[in-house]
Write a structure and sequence with these properties.
alpha/beta; globular; single chain; eight-stranded mixed sheet
């Protein structure tokens, strides 16, 4: 049983803690640290976490831990990882490793080689994306020619009361200078890399229309692979006619077939077609368990992390390049 210290008690930590609850017997969150008393006490009470701290340094000084789960704001990730590394602890850190590529590179360079660090990039652990990867790896559609991924939501359009649903759900959205790509679409960049292999940015376009947020609310990335595959990633959080809830659309076109994921249906269009329904809510929850279970499995076996720092830096390079072009 690994003893885990949770750093952060914000919105996303409920999903981390639910995953640890499902993995009871392998790991237990024994302490949580967050400067906001109401947040840390709420999580501690809901998940029976015995020790509560106002700051992570005190938690790491006083508790006997095996690993930390860093789920605090991205501006704190470098400091929290360096702190945990100085204690010799294994680290699971929410994406991104740092607010920018340079900060992430410096963190990776400065951490002692013995420290096990995994980036909590859970999107690729959604069961339907794992299945798509299996279909691709088994050659069901042949060599991939093109791919297109779209994320459309009306989450930054005012509702009947004038509120922005995306900001109501995650208030920190309003304060981010780097919003849609760094906070949301970074997941999709990583997932496309997971499914399709190395990608290079060819072009990027951002836009900002919503007065309730500081950062971009729409973005389009054009990427390519070494084999000449074309990949388009498009996102818009002010898409009229779409619900506030976010969902992905993905089409991958191969020489012998197509993989299509639209709303709640996943299709393999080939000589032996497959069509199945996807429970988006269940798969969302499963992605947290999958990422954390992978972390625990690799700590136990010594195997490399799928979402290692080196892998995540490749995602961040694409993201940083896109911002540099706008």
């Amino acid at each position: 049983m690994l003893r885990i210290g949770m750093i952060g008690a914000g919105w996303v930590t409920q999903h981390h803690l639910n995953a640890y609850k499902q993995l009871a017997g392998r790991a237990k969150v024994v302490a949580i640290a967050d400067p906001v008393a109401e947040a840390r006490n709420r999580r501690a009470q809901a998940y029976s976490i015995p020790a509560v701290y106002a700051n992570a340094a005190e938690m790491l000084d006083r508790e006997k831990l095996d690993a930390v789960d860093v789920a605090s704001p991205r501006e704190t990730h470098v400091a929290m990882c360096e702190l945990a590394g100085s204690k010799g602890l294994a680290i699971l850190c929410q994406k991104p490793l740092a607010p920018n590529l340079q900060g992430a590179q410096k963190l990776v360079q400065n951490l002692p080689p013995s420290i096990r660090l995994m980036v909590h990039e859970n999107w690729r652990f959604r069961p339907h994306y794992r299945l798509i990867a299996q279909w691709l790896n088994e050659g069901y559609i042949g060599k991939v020619r093109q791919a297109s991924m779209t994320i459309l939501t009306s989450g930054l359009l005012p509702d009947a009361e004038g509120r922005l649903p995306a900001v109501e759900r995650q208030p920190f959205f309003a304060t981010l200078d780097r919003l849609l790509l760094m906070e949301v679409m970074i997941h999709h960049v990583d997932t496309l890399r997971f499914l399709l292999g190395p990608l290079e940015l060819q072009g990027a376009s951002f836009g900002h229309s919503c007065p309730g947020v500081r950062g971009e609310d729409r973005a389009t990335l054009l990427m390519s692979s070494p084999s000449g595959m074309g990949v388009i990633l498009n996102g818009d959080f002010m898409a009229r006619g779409y619900p506030p809830a976010q969902f992905d659309r993905l089409e991958i076109f191969g020489e012998r077939g197509t993989i299509r994921f639209m709303e709640t249906t996943l299709q393999l269009i080939s000589e032996n077609p497959i069509s199945q329904s996807v429970d988006l809510d269940a798969n969302y929850m499963a992605s947290y368990r999958g990422a954390i279970e992978h972390f625990l499995n690799c700590l136990a076996s010594g195997a490399p992390f799928e979402t290692s720092p080196a892998d995540n830096l490749e995602t961040l390079k694409l993201v940083e390049d896109a911002y540099a072009r706008n």
